[in-house]
Each structure stands twice: as structure tokens, then as C-alpha cells.
Amino acid sequence: MAGDVIRVATALINNEDDDLLVVRKTGTDAFMLPGGKIEDGEDPTAAVLRELEEELGVVLHPDALQPFGTFSAPAANEPGYTVEATIFAVTTRCTPQPQAEIADMIWVDPSRPGSLILAPLLRACVLPRLAGTVA
């Protein structure tokens, strides 16, 4: 059913050590990629640029975004829903600062996320792709 799918746009942001930026929203447990829901009439590029500015104070030019892929997984914070994410790799040496609904922000080694609670999209789709274990 179409109402069971949440369309989002997210970003892969790495620091100089190639650690991956993950965020946790207020009132939730799972860490995920920064980004959010695509609003009506908005394309994924505009959505991720808007979300990065709102959530992390990061202002980017669209040229800083490279398509990484589109993936689907169970939604971390909305039981019964599937999230369909358009993911962009971001070229920037920004200094993100948690804002809006972001409760926590950390840099994690994508090959060793440790005991962090990760959103299904990140755990099942993104990290394996980064590790080269999925096409």
C-alpha cells in the first residue's frame, strides 16, 4: 500500500578519518543518516539540502552531492512503515552542529559500528554497500 512507504532523502557525510556521521532524533533510540522526509512537490536533492541545513546547520551547493543509491528498509521510528531512501554521498569538510530534532550526533567507523542501535536502512543496506558486500 502506497501509504505504508515514507520517502526520505539522506546524506553520507564522512570526516577526514572516513568515519560516517550518524544522528539520533529526539525521543528515538536508533542512529541513522542525517536527512528526512521529502515534502510534497520537492525532489530528493532539494529535500536533503533542506534537511542538512535544518538538522545540522550545513549549507551545501547541489554540486556537493553525488548519488549513492535508493534503498528500502523497515522504518526505524514508525512501526509498520517502509522507508524508501534516496541517499547522496556528500563532498564537504563541514562542521555539523546538531539542531532542530537532533538529540545526538556521532562519527562512527562504518566497518565497526560497535553496539550502537542502528536504523534498519543503515544496518542492512548502507553499511554493507560501503563494505562492498552488496551490489
Q: List unreliable stretches of 5+ residues.
A: none
Q: Report the top-level CATH class.
A: Alpha Beta
Proper CATH architecture:
Alpha-Beta Complex
Number of helices, where a helix is a run of at least 4 consecutive DSSP H or I residues = 2
Largest sheet: 4 strands, mixed
CATH topology: Nucleoside Triphosphate Pyrophosphohydrolase
Can you count the beta strands? 6
Give the overall form: globular
Q: Helical amount among residues, as a percent range?
A: 10-25%
- Strand line-up across the major sheet: 3-1-5-4
Distance between the termini: 27 Å
Q: What is the H-and-E element order? A: EEEHEEEH
Q: Can you offer a commentary on this structure?
A:
- This protein starts with a strand and ends with a helix.
- The chain has 135 residues and is an alpha+beta fold.
- A four-stranded mixed beta sheet has the order 3-1-5-4, with helices on both faces. The chain has a two-stranded antiparallel sheet with strand order 2-6.
- The protein is globular and about 35 Å long.
- The chain has helices at residues 44-56, 120-131, and strands spanning 5-12, 20-25, 35-37, 65-74, 82-90, 102-108.
- The relative contact order is 0.27.
